[in-house]
Amino acid sequence: xxxxxxxxxxxxxRLYFDADDVKGKSADDIAAIIFLMFMLxxxxxxxxxxxxxxxxxxxxxxxxxxxxxxxGTDLGNLLAVLNNQETYKDRIKTNFNISIPLFQINRYLSAxxxxxxxxxxxxxxxxxxDDYLRAYHFPALxxxxxxxxxxxxxxxxxxxxxxxxxxxxxxxxxxxxxxxxWFRQNYRLPQ
Length: 191
Known about the structure:
Elements: H1 4-13, H2 27-47, H3 49-60, H4 74-83, H5 102-113, H6 119-133, H7 139-149, H8 156-173, H9 178-186
Helix pairs in contact: 2-3, 2-4, 2-6, 2-7, 2-8, 3-5, 7-8
């Protein structure tokens, strides 16, 4: 029952647990939110590996990303929508140029779950994710990716700026998803 408080918190805070919750969004919007969520997961991973391990584990429970699951995380459910745009085409504006690198995503989430990391592999993952999700259309997201990948070299002032940029982008795109709600309530930048 170690994960019970986390699971209860997710059940109360999740935004995307039904197909109607993505109605009116575009595949580009969803891709940007997914990209932001992975970057936020990476930032939190540096200071709270137990939380990110639990979140990755919960996300991977439905790692085929075939459909939205009521008990899934917002990240997992958004991956399912983007991975199956044809299924959700009556609810979202599709963009079949966007795809999901499932192998790389599961590999990254497995590393987060097991609290192992390799700076080079993480940098490669984020670069590929940027390419697959076509996040390069959003200059702020590209800047965030570069800064977050180089987090270990960032000064405290740089990290504060990155956190502010992340918050601004989430507030603009998806201010109520489970990961961002946890972040707003619990994350403190280490000194």
